[in-house]
């Protein structure tokens, strides 16, 4: 089994099945590694901002090692098959946007995507500014439900710290 096939099998095992969406993320991750001259992230040196929460994101996790838990997989949900990649050490970055595909049956999409070179599939654009590294916030106990939340998700209401579930946002508009 060649390296590309082994990487694809790792993605499929992580995701649970093979599909066109997984192939999109797989090809985006491969192109990002090439363009950024990067290897799989051990920590936060590689960052991905995904504009969708679809199957392709699992391939990015499997190939690049970008994860929500490490703080180097972020979501800026726009419903687009677009991903911005950053290499913190080199300062390189790129935003990859999936090009329109020719019409085809849904079941044919995966094979078509995998048969292409990654560079054929994506437009390269300038990435937005690099997000700051992940921060660790102090834990605060909600004054209503008693559950603990990170302080950046706490709001004060009449001087009482409340989690977002208990807080009643003020608005004069409905």
Offer a quick outline of the entry.
The protein is an alpha+beta fold and 174 residues long. Helices cover 30% and strands 22% of the residues. Helix 1 (3-15) packs across helix 3 (56-64) and helix 2 (20-36) runs parallel beside helix 4 (106-115).
Structural class: alpha+beta
N-to-C order of helices and strands? HHEHEEEHHEEEEE
**Gross geometry:** elongated
Rg from C-alpha positions? Answer: 20 Å
Strands side by side in the biggest sheet: 2-1-3-4-5
How many individual β-strands?
9
Count of alpha/pi helices:
5
Structure report:
With 174 residues, the protein is α+β, with helices and mostly antiparallel strands. Helices cover 30% and strands 22% of the residues. The strands form three sheets. Strands 2-1-3-4-5 form a five-stranded mixed beta sheet. Helix 1 (3-15) packs across helix 3 and helix 2 runs parallel beside helix 4 (106-115).
Write the layout of secondary structure elements.
Blueprint: H1 3-15, H2 20-36, E1 46-50, H3 56-64, E2 73-75, E3 82-87, E4 93-98, H4 106-115, H5 118-121, E5 122-125, E6 139-141, E7 148-150, E8 154-157, E9 160-163
Parallel strand pairs: 1-2
Antiparallel strand pairs: 1-3, 3-4, 4-5, 6-7, 8-9
Keywords for this entry:
single chain, 174 residues, alpha+beta, 5-stranded mixed sheet, 5 helices, 9 strands, 22% strand
């Amino acid at each position: 089994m060649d390296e590309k096939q082994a990487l694809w099998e790792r993605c499929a095992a992580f995701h649970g099945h093979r599909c066109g969406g997984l192939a999109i993320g797989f090809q985006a991750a491969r192109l990002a590694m090439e363009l950024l001259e990067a290897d799989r992230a051990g920590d936060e040196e590689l960052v991905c901002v995904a504009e969708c929460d679809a199957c392709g994101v699992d391939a990015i996790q499997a190939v690049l090692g970008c994860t929500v838990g490490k703080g180097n997989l972020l979501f800026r949900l726009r419903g687009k098959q677009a991903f911005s990649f950053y290499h913190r050490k080199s300062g390189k970055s790129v935003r990859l946007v999936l090009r329109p595909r020719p019409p085809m049956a849904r079941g044919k999409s995966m094979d078509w995507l995998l048969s292409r070179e990654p560079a054929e599939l994506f437009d390269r654009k300038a990435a937005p500014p690099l997000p700051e590294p992940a921060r660790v916030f102090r834990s605060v106990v909600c004054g209503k439900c008693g559950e603990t939340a990170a302080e950046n998700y706490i709001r004060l209401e009449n001087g009482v710290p409340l989690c977002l579930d208990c807080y009643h946002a003020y608005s004069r508009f409905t």
